[in-house]
Amino acid sequence: MREGDGHSVDSAPLPTVSVGLRRVLDLVVAGEATNRAEIARRSGQARSTVGQQVDQLVGHDILQELEAGESVRGRPPRQLILSPRAGTVAVADVDTLQTRIAVADLGGHLVARDTVFTRLDAGPEAVLETVSDQLLALVTRAGHDPRRVRQVVMALPAPVDQRRGCPVRPNGMPGWDGFPVAERLRGRFRAPARVDNDANLMALGEARHAEADGPLLCIKIATGIGAGLVTGSGRIYRGADGAAGDVGHIQSRGGNDVLCSCGNVGCVGALASHRAVLRTLGVPESTEADPLHGVHELAERVANNDPPAVRALRQAAAEIGELAAMLVYVFNPRTLVLGGPLSELSDDLLSGVRAVVYRRALPLATRKLTITTAQLGADSALHGAVALAARDIFSERGIARLLVD
Asked: Is it true that 87-201+381-398 and 211-378 share their CATH fold?
């Protein structure tokens, strides 16, 4: 019996979840308590009450109790962990030419991943069908039951309406505007589904991994340029309509008449994105033989210190640095993360952005600022998607769904 965001898959009422039971599960999931005695001590509940709640969670295959070894008195203690049968999370990070997919357990660990070569301009029907097929196959190959997928999360390179679960007026994505992506995923997986902007999920993944003080601002430099902000409380800032972070369409100081996909001229994304750098060098993004030709060609040129490639990268760094300095003024982040294929090529981009930010922003905004590249690399958004799913799964309503399934 499952439901998604605002759209019920099964109308049966969900049971009430007590505060005590939720506390028990929270302690085990966080690794703060691993047996009944520790849970009773940390939660302040009677051991008999804790025992009943643990039995209920074990009985529903949410928790598993294992023999942990011999104690001093010879009685083997029993360790509580999330049950492998509790279910899985299926996530996808959709980009212009490819989609990264992964399966995670409810503890947030990626247990399998793969890459699906899809083109966004093929339209939502074709992309969602291919990605869903491959995700379900990946769940099976990982040894998990596709019927016990607890949540599906998809990252899209576009502004997203969270309430409706659809992209809103995305550039370069014909047919995607208003398409009910979350609804299609719910129907296919019979599980709750979420859709979010890729830079948002990249920021969330980096914030969870680093456990750094917030706010954390992530700038993704790919086909376009987008930003995601995770607040000090660990929440994604999306803005009133899901358009927060669409920073690639801010006009560059030296943009001149370069036409952007949005129809305006001089946008930063039209000058400093991965696609813009390839265009400057005359390198095609993809070929029939290699869907990621542009990524591979540019990486090889930079690795060989090809002067035009290095110069193009440094020019992009200068543009992105100006953008980053402005965002530092506006949001005063504690950490600034650069992600996307350009950030993975060399230190030129990172050092170039750092130089501009520290030169342009005032000391108050930069004295404790850390500027770095994505620590999770290309998997940042996948980890962010898993973290977003976990928040829903272990909410009061999510636990209630686990108890009736």
From this structure: yes
